[in-house]
Amino acid sequence: MEGYHNLTIAATAENKNFPETFLHLGVDSVSAAGNKVTVETPDGQSLFMATKDDILVGADRLTVTGE
Predict the structure, then answer these.
(1) Can you give the residue ranges of every domain in the chain?
(2) Taking the C-alpha atoms of 59, 52, 29 and 9 in order, what is their torsion angle to the nearest 10 degrees?
(3) Is the separation of the CB atoms in 42 and 51 below 8 Å?
(4) Position 11 confidence tier, pLDDT thresholds 50, 70, 90
């Protein structure tokens, strides 16, 4: 798949009229929404997982920058 400006993939349940999960790839951003969002290494190690109740960071080192 290729999008000139952006690409959005959405998954909708059979009995719903709105997407339950989506991934939007923009020119300079990535957005995702769902009941659970996970980022993994190529070998399947969990780096980041978020639900509305929990956030897990699985990296060996976490750096937070900003004010």
Answers:
(1) 7-57
(2) 110
(3) no
(4) confident
Cβ(48)–Cβ(56) below 8 Å: yes
| Contact call for residues 18 and 30 (beta carbons, < 8 A) | no
Strand partners, 26: none
Which tens digit of pLDDT belongs to each residue from 14-62? 777 767 888 999 989 989 888 898 999 999 999 999 999 999 999 889 8
Give SS3 for 46: strand
Q: Give the C-alpha separation, 43 to 34, whole Å.
A: 23
Output the pLDDT for position 17: 73
